[in-house]
């Protein structure tokens, strides 16, 4: 009876048969087979890779498989790995338990690794099915050269990044506005991207940071700040503007002889610019003279002003502009002009004779 796992040698000898003489002639040519084994073990089954965060994120891959029992029980197992499709290599050829923890080299973190197991003791390859596992740790490499620049109405944030150690799989963007704190404004940015665009808010400092991370998290992979960037106020269409229905506006009027004691000034502004306005300055002059400041209207919501210090029947020219502050810098809007006057009035006394 053949015994599994024991080596056996075989020899095949050929003969020539001569039917006329009814004789067998030795061909003197043997075919030899040495060290042939009867398969002693069945293939390894039940190979699994543990993918829980505790094992995946500590740089190891944990594997388990079923005990081979038929026809007999092997004493040890061999574990193979295929990394980057460079071919199968032996990780350990004397595993006595049905489990193994593979501590992955730093250069192979984040890479999918193929595994298979063989039972030792016969010359047959009793491989298990192939399973894939990936080990990683927290990303520790920070982006560098983070720069924020104004590009029209947006801020462009750019950075450099070189993978070192545990590979990152994505970026997240942090932003600080004014005296506030850095907060995440975007995540899951592709690891190949090096540019992010943010809507620019006027008249306040912005700062940005970029962080690299992977499924295991991050550890010291947040960049330094981009430095401060801000957008100045676009203040040239406060009075003269086009609305959403493409209607042009330029609304500043002075009353013309409607009143006997005043000249009434009225205006309206671009509703999209109201938040930028702090106050209005109104200038006045007589014909042929230079403008001088008449008054400052400190209510940003004001829509009119009454000029009560005028001479009757004298034409006055008025100029209005809005004033705002952008990042501690005073900004002035576009201007409009209007002409107005008041009529004279008085009391007539005496007798009318018919």
Topology record:
Elements: E1 7-18, E2 23-37, E3 48-50, H1 53-56, E4 60-64, E5 77-83, E6 88-95, E7 99-103, E8 113-119, E9 131-133, E10 144-151, E11 154-160, E12 170-177, E13 183-190, E14 195-199, E15 206-213, E16 240-242, E17 248-250, E18 252-254, E19 263-267, E20 279-286, E21 292-297, E22 304-307, E23 316-326, E24 329-340
Antiparallel strand pairs: 1-2, 3-4, 4-7, 5-6, 5-8, 8-9, 10-11, 11-14, 12-13, 12-15, 16-17, 18-19, 19-22, 20-21, 20-23, 23-24
What does this structure look like?
The mean pLDDT is 88. The relative contact order is 0.10. The chain has one helix at 53-56; strands at 7-18, 23-37, 48-50, 60-64, 77-83, 88-95, 99-103, 113-119, 131-133, 144-151, 154-160, 170-177, 183-190, 195-199, 206-213, 240-242, 248-250, 252-254, 263-267, 279-286, 292-297, 304-307, 316-326, 329-340. It folds into 4 domains: 7-37, no CATH class; 48-133, Immunoglobulins (Immunoglobulin-like, Sandwich); 144-213, Sandwich (Immunoglobulin-like); 240-340, Immunoglobulins (Immunoglobulin-like), CATH 2.60.40.10. It is rod-shaped and about 180 Å long. The protein is mainly beta. A 4-stranded antiparallel beta sheet has the order 6-5-8-9, with no helix packed on it. The N and C termini lie far apart (159 Å).
